[in-house]
Amino acid sequence: MKIALLSVFYPYRGGIAQFSAMLYRALENEHELKAFTFSRQYPNFLFPGSSQFVTENDKVDEIPAERTLDSVNPMSFRKTASKINAFAPDLFISQYWMTFFGPATGGVQKRLTKGMKRISILHNVIPHEKRFFDNFANRSFIKHNEGFIVLSDSVLQDLLTIAPDAKYLRIDHPVYNHFGEKLEKETAIKKLHLSPNKKQLLFFGFIREYKGLDILLRSLENLPEEFELIIAGEIYGSFDVYQSIIDAAGLKNRVHLFNEYIPDDEVATYFSAADVCILPYKGATQSGITAIAHHFDLPIVATNVGGLKETIAHEETGLIIQPDSKELSDAIKHIYSEDRLEKFSENIKNYKAKNSWSNFAKKVIEFSSKL
Q: Are the C-beta atoms of 231 and 257 separated by less than 8 Å?
């Protein structure tokens, strides 16, 4: 097949760009591909992080995508559609993760040649942080698709709320496998200058209010001194509320903050240094962090929100709890008992074999052929 992909690709960074690159590589061996991405993803004043782009030191998969779509310039919607139509693909695949991009992506889709199959991979439909234009953006995007790939039951329910008759394929987020091999824990601990005799918890990824870092910090108050916390990720907004918890609870020496975007080639260090990954989210659909943790065979403690529980088997690959600091601290103690960490890691290895990118890509193509 000839397939056009519209998403975030190199030189942009972040989880969606990583997902898109992995999908591209999974499809390219059997299909003719052309990737399209943004000439401008966000206006700078709307972007909460330090940079939208990879740096010269980042080791990333440089997918050869054509930068053509400006998210806030309607003239580029027509231009991008024209370039895709010139390629004349059998299948068009877009990624959708934020309502901000609904008008741009929908504006491209509605101008594609009649008869071209259009499907979208939905990471979110109803956003974590709601905005006044969400309903309009969702509807203007969804109506220009023949089918959808959904990565969690919660996203599926959001989709069906808006489009009850939508055709869809429900499939789990594949396991990321491009971060390299797991390091010896002693090596990773040394690289991060951590104490070798402590129990290390990991909070990884962009720090935003809905991700519940405050819940995790308060749970650390209820844990013995031997438990420490690695926080690795760029802060979106202010860290003041979290710093006040750290100061008030006297956690300064037990919290290790790496406030920066973590390049792909450094991800292994953080996951190799940790014993367990914590997702204390207050709201979620699914999280790419679970796919990274699974790659490194790292058990997860996550809250029972959105689709997190769908990729974490309770008491098999991790624990599912309510978003409460006391319940979280109890769960952390529990997962360290009776060899659960080792048992859960072995179960994750079995799960990974079924959830590969090649299987994901195959199912996407099979679904599109039936539309």
A: yes
Q: Pseudo-torsion of CA 122, 154, 353, 12, nearest 10°?
A: 30
pLDDT tens digits along 231-286: 999 998 889 999 999 999 999 999 999 998 898 889 999 999 999 999 999 986 66
pTM: 0.72
Long-range pairs, 191-197, Cβ under 8 A, ≥24: 191/269, 191/273, 192/230, 192/256, 192/258, 192/269, 192/270, 192/273, 194/228, 194/230, 194/256, 194/273, 195/228, 197/226
**Do 148 and 208 reside in the same domain of the chain?**
no
112-156 confidence digits (pLDDT tens): 999 999 999 999 998 767 778 899 999 889 999 999 999 988 899
Residue 180, domain member (yes or no): no
pLDDT of residue 286: 63
Burial of 79: CB neighbours in 10 Å, binned 0-12, 13-18, 19+:
middle
Report how many domains make up the chain: 2
